[in-house]
Automatic annotation (TrEMBL):
TM region(s), chain numbering: 100-119
Keyword Transmembrane: yes
Keywords: Membrane, Transmembrane, Transmembrane helix
Protein name: Altered inheritance of mitochondria protein 19
Length: 126
């Protein structure tokens, strides 16, 4: 088997998801779209931290960025799941954005958590 085998395992796929800079940026975009109008201060704390995590990832600190993304995605999921939502509201535009952000949070916690736990700190070892 070659090193670029298209049949990666689920854990390897999740880990490579956690090592990219796009997932925290996408989550920050969804959170901003959901809480900017009307402005809600508490949820709007999360986008700057997630964008900083994406910046760290692009700067070469993939393991640390994955840890920050996993932690803050989990915190946002806990905060967002506290709000109740009527059944009729779940299928509107805001409900779909909320569902997408919670799904992305779940994948980020799993993938970035794996990348953080099994990651190597190349910059610190040099």
């Amino acid at each position: 088997m070659s090193s670029q085998d298209p049949k990666q395992g689920v854990l390897q796929s999740l880990r490579s998801w956690g090592e990219h800079s796009v997932p925290p940026t996408a989550l920050a975009t969804l959170i901003t779209a959901q809480h900017f109008r009307p402005f809600q201060a508490m949820p709007m704390i999360f986008p700057p931290v997630l964008l900083f995590s994406s910046y760290l990832n692009l700067s070469g600190y993939k393991t640390d960025a994955a840890g920050i993304t996993a932690a803050w995605s989990g915190l946002y999921a806990l905060l967002a799941m506290r709000r109740s939502q009527r059944f009729k509201q779940k299928f509107g535009a805001r409900g779909l954005v909320r569902g997408a952000s919670l799904g992305l949070c779940a994948v980020n916690v799993a993938g970035c958590g794996l990348a953080y736990v099994f990651g190597k700190r190349e910059k610190e070892e040099e």
